[in-house]
Amino acid sequence: MDGQDKLTDYDSQGTESSFSESKTYGAFHNHFTESVQPLIELIDSMRLIGIDKDVNLPSIAVVGDQSSGKSSVLEALSGVALPRGSGIVTRCPLELKLRKLKKGQWSGTISYSDQKETFNDSLKVDNLVRKAQDQLAGNTVGICDDLITLEISSPDVCDLTLIDLPGITRVPVHGQPEDIGDQIKKLILKYIAKSETIILVVVPCTVDIATTEALRMAQDVDPEGCRTLAILTKPDLIDKGGETGILNIVQGKVIPLSKGYIVVKCRGQSDINNNIPLSKALEMDMQFFRNHHYFSSLLIDRRASIQCLADRLTKELVEHIKKSLPCLTEQIQTTLLTVQRELKTYKKGPPLDEEMMGPFLSEIIIKFNDQISDLSRTGHSKDRNIYALLRPEFKKWDIYLRATEVSFKARVNKMIDEYNEKHRGRELLTFSDFSEFESVIKDHVGALQEPAMVTLNHVREIVQNVFRDICYSSFDQFPSLRYIVSKMINDIQSKQESKVEKRIREFTDMEQLVFTQDKVLQQKLTYSDVPQKTGMDPSDKEFYDDDTVFNSKGCALLDTRYLIPDKLVLYYEITYQRLTDYVPMLLILFTLKDAAKILQHQMLELRNGADVVELLKEDSERGRRRADLNQRLERLTQAQELISKRI
């Protein structure tokens, strides 16, 4: 057969049939259909884009105790010598991709972390894998979860992907952490606990299979044995008489496994010491089973030899992929929708191109200014209504002013009662000194200054907090910009507060002048009380000038001491009316409307000469999360496209 060695195989009836085995590394069947490679490449492509971070992919994980022959099995399948030695040799998960070429030269590619190297000499594999492990796990005897991918393309390998995991150890050696055994088990469980993983357990024929840690771990996560395939190694080292026990194991009489057992004979240490090449070792493997008195039947049942193992593993993986594809497709779709929903909760990030950052900054500033403008113009901005917050403060101010009327009247009455004794000067009896009454008003109005300042502080705090809320919601992902704008708001409000303080003091000083137009006060007077107290009719025209204002006679009508308290309270009504409106209007104008205009202007100025990159530097956690979601979205979308092309 084209220069290939003829080996004898047997069908289920025991008749001889011929099949070929490569002279070079690996001996595998060529009868797999064209659909095999695309399915395996589909999963590898999905793993390459990192989709295994989001969903579990079908895979074969190789586990075994130290010195179980795991490396020998992988060498036989791949045709290359992998690192060997005492202790833990596999210190990182090794993804071994075997790609069968119809024609072409052997080539290999190793990739890990951000490094990738392609080579054409199979003898380099050992050193390159060791180098990768040293970089990832350190130059010690520790382990690492990071994955190393070794892809081998050759006409002499089958289409197969395996993940080799560190060998299970129980006792730490010098330099290893005390919990090295637990670390390795945790790493192994990370892979084999997934229902999508076929567990390939490597067990030497020379040990009691019931006590094998690797098989016990497989049973813990796969109690029915539906995902577990066991490989029995070193059949040539069985003590004489122990062959029957191995046959019982393979026949499932000891620990039944749905996928069963396969026995292989790979290169041992003596074969390596004698420089027996892998190709020769594969021939020896087949010859051993063909001539063995007990195990030849296993070859007939296709339960022995590396060739049968390669064939079986490829078929198992392909069937597993076919079976998993519907569920995998559903998982990808569900995860994709979840990622899309979560991404909606994150605002659009800044453009990566620095030239686009300026327009983006202008855009978010304009949106911010629009909200501030709406707030100052109508009181509403999105779900905020600032007047709903300010009105209670203005009401408190009004209630306070109204309540002071009682104390004011009491002070006037007390002053009148004590007037002749304490306040009367040279004036005649019943002729009161206006300055004494004026002082009562001045003192009372002056005392209103501090309560007005309290109202100012409360209103400033409310407006500032609302402005800051808009700032945080607009720039929550940009801490530098958020800090600058927040500080800008504080500075503006401080300056506006100083302006309002000055005007409140000015206004209370003006109120101490005790002035209003005659007509204004006259309209406040309760004329119905005048006839009762003076016996005169205030409606008589002789008391008025042409413009309906009291003349001197009319003023004398009211110039009686017993009417002073009522008159002063009526005047206080005017003062109250001015203060209850003026202070809120002053606060609205300076702390809200003017402050909004100043803020909008300064925000527009902020764009000029700004370090746009620094301003748009995102909050680290939020930026990382959005970047992670965008990467997941891209992976999941690519995975969907890959599956749709294959189905």
UniProtKB/TrEMBL annotation:
Pfam (any one): Dynamin_N
Localization: Cytoplasm
InterPro entries: Dynamin, Dynamin_GTPase, Dynamin_GTPase_CS, Dynamin_N, Dynamin_stalk, G_DYNAMIN_dom, GED, GED_dom
CDD domains documented for this protein: DLP_1
Claim: Ribonucleoprotein is one of the keywords in the record: no
Positions of the Dynamin-type G domain: 54-326
Main location group: cytoplasm
Keywords, comma-separated and alphabetical: Cytoplasm, GTP-binding, Nucleotide-binding
Domain (GED): residue spans on this chain: 561-647
Family label: Belongs to the TRAFAC class dynamin-like GTPase superfamily. Dynamin/Fzo/YdjA family.
The name this protein goes by in its record: Uncharacterized protein
